[in-house]
Amino acid sequence: MTREIDSSFLCDLARRAGAAILEVARGGELGVEYKSDETPLTRADRASHDIIVSALRETTPGIPVISEEDAERVPFAKRAEYKKFWIVDPLDGTKEFVRNRADYTVNIGLVSGAVPVMGVVYAPVRDWTYFGQTHPDGTTEAFKQIGDETPQPLPLPENAHEEIVAVRSRSHAVDGEEDILAKFSPARTVSMGSSLKFCLLAEGQADVYYRAGPTWEWDTAAADAVLRAAGGITLTPDGKEPLPYNKPSGKNENGFLAFANPKLRARLD
User: Fold this and answer.
1) Model confidence over 40-98: pLDDT tens digits?
2) Which fold has domain 157-268?
3) Radius of gyration over every alpha carbon of the chain, rounded to an integer in angstroms
4) Domain covering 7-153: architecture
5) Buried b / exposed e along 209-231 (16+ C-beta atoms within 10 A)
6) Which of 45, 138, 228, 244 is least surrounded by CB atoms within 10 angstroms?
7) Cβ contact 161:245 at 8 Å
């Protein structure tokens, strides 16, 4: 029997996976291998994957699960039939993890149709948890929790600012991004790894995030759900429509453009 999906269940699951990642990090034996696309895969990726996928399949057996670590087993002909599915990146920012940096995350998202409607992003080293959900009636909830402190609704009021702040990738900056970002005349730029870039927008620390290069849907879905629930939006790179999910390739082929405030889209005209 499928239990009700709620924030506590999803956040606790992400934290359990994060604890497994930290255990691997403390042990020092990362077991780094490289996939066909030359991206790293570690024992921590696998441990997190096993915890998350097992729990989701047991708790919500009627909802398919797509994880980065087994996504190739689900062809689009089958995915096209999904009305709702979980999409998981067990360790987003594996390069950050291998380099002993703090910006990697656990991402668990729920997609309904082509829209991310629920997501949790957990940063194990920082002990930050972000959660967002858009309910069927259109109401939303979004929060950030630091450790065991009381969750704070997003966006956080203390992060309000007047100047435009742009956020960009630490590891994947692409030529041509400057041309788009220049349209917003950012006063400063913040660099961060993994899906935390979306979360900076969701909590009000940044305003615009443009990614020119391709990403996979599991890289963005959970954090995109948080951002949308916090009042932001993620668009196709031309800024004309919300970024869709469950595409045939499973990729955001040409990148995306995300805003903390959807009104900023008007600056593209």
Assistant:
1) 778 889 999 999 999 999 999 999 999 998 877 788 999 999 999 999 999 998 888 87
2) D-Maltodextrin-Binding Protein; domain 2 (3.40.190)
3) 17
4) 2-Layer Sandwich (3.30)
5) bbbbeebbbbbbbbbbbbbbbbb
6) 138
7) no
Domain ranges of the chain: 7-153, 157-268
In 37-93, alpha helices (H): 43-59, 76-79
In this structure, how many other beta carbons lie within 10 angstroms of the beta carbon of residue 79? 16
Geometric angle at alpha carbon 142, from 88 and 236, rounded to 5°: 60
d(CA 43, CA 262): 39
User: Range with the lowest mean pLDDT among 35-39, 125-129, 250-254?
Assistant: 35-39
In order of 90, 139, 177, the CA distances from 209 in angstroms are 23, 24, 10
